[in-house]
Every structure is written in structure tokens, then in C-alpha cells.
């Protein structure tokens, strides 16, 4: 019954190799030394390598300082633009105190270091963006310097400071006596990509708000910064619109228990903000809209069998002025409810058979001179929707399909690549046209496989496509997608974590330093135990244990 | 992103077909009518088809009776051998009251039927086996008759009564006003196989006792009756032996936090007993024993490189008398701690390379006249272990390997079939030799795949192998195995449920009545929602929702 496991076997083999290289005359390569480091980690020595995702540059030393929860403080630097009262940092200080001193609430303060040596984490940021929302231009760079009795954390923005606090929290460890320590450390860190997203699908299954908030917490632990909320789709419409309440009262799985009220949405957005996470809603059309039709008569295209309506409906009806009036009102509301400058308009997988069957649509095609070219009709529709949201000063993200059939869309539109086959060619094609892209295709982690399938997310090389440096710059990031066909609150977290964290390191860290799954394995195992310790139901990578196992049921 | 789903597509197609058969002249086949029934279920009408696993015979009627938690009683029939004070039934009555009236604790008693119409479930059993343990001969047959104001539940044993109470609890439903109802119903039910097990592996990952108890609850909801506790293996030895405490203090992942104390084990056994579940421990040897070696010097075979010990160890050392003295003491303890008459001795996947390398083993082979035939040595070892447990009046279960290399083992030994390839030929071979078998091979549900992989467990045909009726009778049951390489408390329940329930119906119900996954789909969806309502993190089968979603995080 024992499973063959490449990572484990490889690192065992490597260990032997390293020991031999040490016993031998001594020509140890850099790889050998790195492997030695790995073994040290495996042996439980604490090194800054424990930070996940791996920071850009790190220097650490064995010199360690005890931390005592009775004499541990977060504070603002004298030069900091953000002062006490800064909502983002005040909240972060409190959260991270409890994340660092996990057993604090249980009251058993380690006695060994009770001679109150104070330790202060002094945070300084250049801009007072405490009450703002993170956006596409927010810098997340930070510098962290840990020395005797003090850690200095400097960042341009509070969002960078939040990332730095996460790294600091991961530097703290406990010895066998439960005493807390942090080692002398220097970190200069920044993300490789500025868009690092997670998609949740709340239409195929409804996710209680608590499950979403918990996901946001775990996202911050892996330094994700975008929550792509695929909030509605064919199966259900849980978003409770103030303008069109029928959409959820008739289109949700249940009009009261399976909806997101305006206050639910505000709660998600404000929780995300405190973690430096953007919330980008997707209202996918003209396809994937079956649930919209229940609460909005005449929105969907009536399909015909011969000369008579069949009683079924297709995509949004692109020929009626009422359609665009409805969309204008809906997106006006959505734009004000969701503060982010991005909005996702979908545009994927539109089937033409129903449009083709409908005489009014065919007549419209003739009038517009589209002939039989239905992609032209689809392009006409998407162009209209993009224009509606542009008028609302929103940047549109659309699925790659929109580019595939129609290359003339506003230059600032972001293309979202989801098709697994040939996504590298697509990256070349779209960036060559000067458009920005977000890559999701290789990170559809709703697809599961037996064994260590986190390797698939980890070994992605997002910029390994043929194109100029200018083209590569147009890849603004990536997204880990958890589609909801087989996922709800019962299994969401174990399927997301730590598998999504593998993608998180690919999107944050330097690819050269993080190219090996064997090197990542023990680090990800440690990080997974940290997630479990923080109450996230992160599933195991392989045989083993955590000091603190998940105790829930 | 929409997934193609055969079950859903099929049942949609079927619905249309049925409607057409009703509109048409009317030659509706039996299949059509069954499909009509399916549609009715899908529409939410309550029928006894809702019971999972499907009872052997059921007659139900639309006549329904309201149930009021204020006037609902479980009681003992006048003729019942079991009387008030019967531990199994007293406990079951209390459990099922709360399982039936789910919102009782939350206090919102439906008002609509408050004119206290009393309803009594009267239970009668032929034997007062209230304080005993379920065993391989325990009858689980029951007869349930629900009429106005009363349900009569008759069974030979309390274990049959517990199965009947589960079925009754699944008959109860709530209308839109929250009022409880049960329909007039007649059920005569019994299991197809008497051994219906679940294997949990607590060595590759440690499972907290709470996770095991929760598993036992969910097992009872699916009418499983054997908990095969694969308690120790190579990675760790969590069983705290009173005779050999070093086995866990040195062989467990942690000597205090990752062990099962004697009281933990008693807790598991007594919890299982109240559900009519047998607990069969497995102490697998001579292979899969690396963790045993840490606390028991000289137990494992020292491997040699050339003429010197390599420092690594292989399987249990079969040539030392001390080995058999140790095993005799260990199994004496285990036999008294675990009351079941069965004990699992493992015997799978023994590698010979280490034995071959060891000069003492080779010398022993010569002395015994085994020559170079190591299966003979393995047979010698297993025979000795089986004799030890036979002397303790235990029936041995061993993995199929033991039969494969050695056909002369006590006739009452049960062979456990686990190898996926050619398991039907193995069934023929072993039953032909007159040995009893338990089938696990097609139910290794630790192996996961994307999509509705419960189909694999459901479509198994355990008796579809070439053999006489006598041979088929030797298949005493099956087992769903959840090996622990990738599973711990964080993801155990969503991976087990409802996927294991598919196997449960195959093992309990009539195969002819339950041969179609399309017919099973809506029933299993309902059952999965029932599990979620009862606090089990059972994952969804496909797109959809439950009235009461999982609210935990």
C-alpha cells in the first residue's frame, strides 16, 4: 500500500549525496550546499527558508532573540506616514499578535524567558494610505530587519507592511519548551507579479460568508492579493441586487439562505481590504446566465424549434435595447458596490445555436451586415458591455474568448487566459497585440489527481513563451481557479490549501530560486502545518505529522 | 468551464423520454415508470426511496402522519426481550431523537401541529443482547411498520433494531413550514453481506480520536458494521501498549500527543458498539513494521551490505525465538483489549532483499530446508503468528498475499483481497480453495479522481466472478479502504463521504434494484445533504445545494 513518492525519494537520495560530498575530498557544488540546508530544515533547525512564499532576498544568522508575549509590541516608526489609528495597521498588529503567540489565549505563557526583555516591531510606511483600498499599482515591497530587541519593517505602503508582517510572523518559532524565538534576519522582498489571484465560484455551490472570510485569511498567509469572486453563473444568482432584487429572489438556490446581501458583500470587501486583498467581482455574460433569466424577463434569447419558441433560453439577448438598459443599471450598481477599478465581464463559452434559431436575432444580423458571422454579434455585444463599464471608469477583465474572436477591444482591457491547451501560444498572441494578460489556465486546481498534484501548480513557468521582454511585461500575474462543480464549504479549504500555496510561490518568488519541487517539499510541509496551526484545514502533502494537528471534526 | 456530467445529462434525457412516453399512446416500460419515480424524487416529493442504502423490500403510501417533538416517544414492545435499561437501545433512542428533530436544540418547535398527537416508535427484539458486542453472526435484519400514531420495529437483535432506527430516521422529513412528517410505510430489510467495513489508517497520519468517533457515526448512517483499524504501520506506532510502552513512546510521531491510550481505544470500541459496529485492529507484520523496531530492539531483521550490517532494518526477524515470544505477549494484550473475535494480521508486501542479505536468516533457511525459497520462510512466519492468535481464540484476517504464497493456512482464516488487478480471478481461486474472503480491491477510495468517481465504487459487482454458488457464499463482504498517505483529520471526512456510502449500498442492498448510477444519483444527493445536516463534512456530488449547508469553517 505504500506509495512511491518522487519528492521524498529524491530528497533522501540527495541527503546521501550531500553527506558523501562532505565525506569526500570536498568538491561540493552550490546544489549540494542547498541540499544540506534542506536537510537542516528537515532536522527541524529554523531558518528563514521557512517563509512561504520565499522572499526575494534574505540573510539570516543563527543569532536568536527570545520573544515574550508579555513584553512584545508592534508600533509605528517616528518617520512613518501612517500613525496610530491607521485602520489597516492597527488591525494587522492585533491579528499578528495572536498569530505569533498561538497559545497566548490558552494562557500558558512560557516561563523560561519571563525576565521581561521587551521586543518591538517598528513599522514605517511612506504613504498614509490607511483608509484606502489596495489597487493594481499598490507597491507590496517591504524591507524587514530583525535585530536584538527590535525589528524594523519599512514599506512604501501599508499593503507592503502587511506582507512584511506576514513574513515576520513566519520567522517566529517555538523551541521544545514552548519559548518563542526569532533569528537575526534581513529581508528585502517584493512580488514577482502584481496580480496574484484566487477564484471562488459561488454559483455552482453557495459558499457561506464565513467560508469566504476564512479563504481571505489563508490567502494573506500565502501573500495572494486578488479575490476574483465568480459570484453568479448558470446554476444560481446569489448576489442580492438592490436595483434588481428579483435576480436573487428568483435566481438563487434559495432567496433567503443562499444569497449575498449588500452587507455580506461589504463584509467580504472590508475583510479583504484589511489583508491588502482586492475584490474583483465577475458578472459573466452573455453566456453562463441561465440563472439571470429567472428574475429578469426578456433578458435571455428565446430559442426556437423551427418557427416556434422551444421554451428554452440561450445567452443574453443581444438585439434588444432593453438588454443594454438593464446591463447599464446593473453595472452602475456593481461598480459602486465593489470599489476595485477592475471588473470581470466574463465573455467565455458562448454557444451560437440558440441565437441562430431565433428569427429576431437573424434579422438583426442582416440589419447590422454581420451575415452569418455570429462571432461578430458576440463581439458587438461584448463591445457594448465593455463600453458601459469603461464609462463607469472601470478596467475590464474578460476571458480569452473575447480576444480570440475579436481583436479590437479597448487597449486597457485585461485578457484572462483559461484554456489549458496551447496557453503559451495564446500568451504570445495576446501580448504581441499589446494587451495585458492574467494567466489562469495552468492553475485550475478544482481539477484534482491522486498524489502530490501540487507539483503541477509549482512547476508552471508563466513567462516561458516566445515573446519580447515588452511582451513578458504584459503578463501582470496569475490566478488559481477553484471552480465549484464539486466544491462547497465541506471540502473547499482542504482542496485549496496548501495546493494553492504552490501557485502563490510561483507568482511571488524568484523562479530561479524556487525551481525545484524537491527543495520546496519540506518548506511547503512546514507551511502547511503553519496553516493548520492557524485553523485552516490544509490537507497533508504526504505521510507525516504536524506538531499541532487539526483538532476539529 | 461547465463540466459534462453523464448522470445529470442522462437523467435529464430520461425525464424527457418519460414525459414523451406519457404524452404518447402510453406504452411506458417499467424503466419509464422507475424514471418517473426518479423525477418525483428530484421534484422533492418524499418517498421511501430516500433511504440510503436502499432496503430490500419497501412499500410506502402517500398517507402521512405529523410528528411533534413534544409528543414523540421511543419505547420497548411488551414482548421485547430487551427492556428499559438496555444500554444499546436507550442510547440509540436518545441519539435518534436529536437526529430526527434536528432543529430541536435550537428550540424553534414547529407550531403548526402542536395539538399533541402522540407518536410512538415501539421496538421489540427477540434476544437481550444489550450488553454484548456485535459479532460476525449478529443478525441485522429488521422489520419496520409505520402507521397512524405508531411505528413498530421488530428485530432479532438490538443490532438489527439500530439499523431499523436509522431507516426510520431517514423516513422522517420536514415540509416548507418545518413540520415533521413520516409516511405510512412497510419495510423488511437485511444486509446482502454481513461484513461491511471501513479501513482507517492511523499510522501514515495520526487521526485524533474525535475524527474516528465522527467516522463511526457516519458509518452507522450508511449501515457499515466493521471498523478495520489499521492502527500501526511503517511510519508510526500510535497504539500505546501496556506490555510494551516503548513501542509508542519511541515509535509514535510523538509519545504523548500522537498516541492512542488504552482509554482512547476503549472509547472507540464502546462508541462503535453502541452503533453496532465491530472494531477489528490490524497489527500488520512481518512487513510494514519499521516503526515497531524503534521501541523493540532485535525485532526487525538487520540488513547487510556484504558481510557487515548496513545499519538499516527489514521485516520482522523470523529466525529469533524472541520474536515469537514478543508477538505472543503483544497479541495476548491486543486480544484482550479488542473484544472482536477477528484480528487482522496483515502479511502483505514483504520484501525479501533484507532477509536475503542476512547470514543468520540464510543459515536458518538451510536448517529448515527452505533452500532459497523465501516465500516458505514468510509462510513459516505467518503460520506461527496465526497459530498464536488461534490459541487466543481469534479468527485471523490476512491480506491476500498470504494465500498467494501459501495455500495451507487454517480453514477459518479470512483472506482480504486488496490487489486491484485481477481481483476477480483471485476471488475464484481463493473461494475455490474453500476460504472466506473480504473484498477491498475495488474500494480503495483513498485514490481520488476529478468528477463523480463514486461511480467506481457503486458499479462494483462483488459476486461477478466465475465460481459455484458455494464459492459465492464464501464472499462474506467488502471493505472501503481509506489509506493515509494523503489523508488526515483536515480532509478525511470530505474524502470518505459520501463516496464510501456508494460502496455501502453495494454491500447492503439488492444489486438488481441498485444497478444504475443515474437512478442512484438523486438519492445519493439527498443522502449527502442528510449527512451534512448531521454535521458530517460530506462533499457534494455535483452542482447544486442543500437546504442546510455546512456552516463550519
From TrEMBL, chains A, B:
Coiled-coil segments: none
Start and end residues of each Glycoside hydrolase family 20 catalytic domain: 193-510
Substrates-to-products reaction catalysed: a ganglioside GM2 + H2O = a ganglioside GM3 + N-acetyl-beta-D-galactosamine; N-acetyl-beta-D-galactosaminyl-(1->4)-beta-D-3-sulfogalactosyl-(1->4)-beta-D-glucosyl-(1<->1')-ceramide + H2O = a beta-D-3-sulfogalactosyl-(1->4)-beta-D-glucosyl-(1<->1')-ceramide + N-acetyl-beta-D-galactosamine; N-acetyl-beta-D-6-sulfogalactosaminyl-(1->4)-alpha-L-iduronyl-(1->3)-N-acetyl-D-6-sulfogalactosamine + H2O = alpha-L-iduronyl-(1->3)-N-acetyl-D-6-sulfogalactosamine + N-acetyl-D-6-sulfogalactosamine; beta-D-GalNAc-(1->4)-alpha-L-IdoA-(1->3)-beta-D-GalNAc-4-sulfate-(1->4)-alpha-L-IdoA-(1->3)-D-GalNAc-4-sulfate + H2O = alpha-L-IdoA-(1->3)-beta-D-GalNAc-4-sulfate-(1->4)-alpha-L-IdoA-(1->3)-D-GalNAc-4-sulfate + N-acetyl-D-galactosamine
E.C. number: 3.2.1.52
Protein localization: Lysosome
GO molecular function annotations of the record: beta-N-acetylhexosaminidase activity
Active site residues per record: 349
Record carries keyword Aminoacyl-tRNA synthetase: no
Disulphide bridges: 86-130, 303-354, 529-546
GO CC annotation: lysosome; membrane
The entry's keywords: Disulfide bond, Glycoprotein, Glycosidase, Hydrolase, Lipid metabolism, Lysosome, Membrane, Signal, Transmembrane, Transmembrane helix, Zymogen
Signal peptide: none
Family: Belongs to the glycosyl hydrolase 20 family.
Subunit structure of this chain's protein: There are 3 beta-hexosaminidase isozymes: isozyme A (hexosaminidase A) is a heterodimer composed of one subunit alpha and one subunit beta (chain A and B); isozyme B (hexosaminidase B) is a homodimer of two beta subunits (two chains A and B); isozyme S (hexosaminidase S) is a homodimer of two alpha subunits. The composition of the dimer (isozyme A versus isozyme S) has a significant effect on the substrate specificity of the alpha subunit active site.
Function description: Hydrolyzes the non-reducing end N-acetyl-D-hexosamine and/or sulfated N-acetyl-D-hexosamine of glycoconjugates, such as the oligosaccharide moieties from proteins and neutral glycolipids, or from certain mucopolysaccharides. The isozyme S is as active as the isozyme A on the anionic bis-sulfated glycans, the chondroitin-6-sulfate trisaccharide (C6S-3), and the dermatan sulfate pentasaccharide, and the sulfated glycosphingolipid SM2. The isozyme B does not hydrolyze each of these substrates, however hydrolyzes efficiently neutral oligosaccharide.
This protein's name: Beta-hexosaminidase
